[in-house]
Amino acid sequence: MARLLVLDSWALLAYFQGEPSGETVEAHLIRAASGREALLLSVVNWTEVVYCVERKGGRAAAEQVIRDLDALPIAVVGVDENRRIAREAASMKAGFRLSLANAFAAALTRERKGALVTGDPEFQPLEGLIRIEWLVKRPA
């Protein structure tokens, strides 16, 4: 069975911007393409990646990143019909100082019993609640 990982916006932006942490994300993508890992992305985090790229590089850059995301071995997970993930995200946002996108990444990770791949220090308070694979040295 493939190891399940959830990518957050921080991880994908590091990959698309060619940052050193992006090399680790690329390795996860290669393993996912070979079936050794399963990669998930909340649609809320997908939205965050696209708007960050559009804000920095314009509409054409956003359209390109959408095509790039579509070509990657990542399953984009929408808000579920029974709203379990959304409810969990709301609870995490209420209990921790998380952005909405980060709350959805954490909720998806918890719901699917995976590990979150990130370098965003905002997730540090969740270390006992979800498994986190830090892309950079663990935040102090």
Can you describe what's shown?
- The chain is α/β, with parallel strands linked by helices and 140 residues long.
- It has a single domain, classed as 5'-nuclease (Rossmann fold).
- The protein has helices spanning 9-16, 21-33, 43-57, 59-71, 84-95, 100-112, and strands at 3-7, 37-42, 74-77, 115-118, 131-134.
- The protein has a five-stranded parallel β-sheet, sandwiched between helices.
- α3 packs antiparallel against α4 (59-71) and α5 (84-95) crosses α6 (100-112).
- The radius of gyration is 14 Å and the shape is globular.
- The N and C termini lie far apart (34 Å).
- The model has no long low-confidence stretch (mean pLDDT 94).
